[in-house]
Design brief:
By secondary structure, the chain is an all-alpha fold. It has 6 helices and no strands. Helix 1 (2-14) packs across helix 2 (23-40), helix 1 (2-14) runs parallel beside helix 4 (57-79) and helix 2 runs antiparallel to helix 6. It starts with a helix and ends in a 6-residue tail after the last helix.
Length: 146
Amino acid sequence: MLEYISKIIDKIYDEIDLNQRDVFNRSREIGLIKFKVMKKFPQAFNFLKNANNEEASEVKSEIDKIRNNITQKGFEKIYENIDFTKFRDDIDIEKTLNIINWTMLSFSEQQVNKLNSFEDIDIELLKEWDSYFDIMKRCFYKKEED
């Protein structure tokens, strides 16, 4: 089942427009694609959510390996062909990307924990997500010239 879900998630990343070079716009695009896929396959994502809570040693390491692989592939796609010149010159890009990653992962985990089922997922979630992106853009991007 986890391999099947992994293939569903791979399809999300196949839909990404790599010509969108703004990391926050790309992340939002991925969020919208994920939202649509989660609405289409809520049972698969419910299974994945429950699998993340699995403690049985016989399967826990395999579940963690698959989850980490999914996360790693996702971050690779998010940052593929990104325009890093938008970032301020006085910040460390690698540390900034870590902050963005941690924010995305923590926000996602927090929201998933609130759900009883992925059938309940609501588009309002993306609006809240955008508010975090707005803050990070102001912090990490160069000011736009008027």
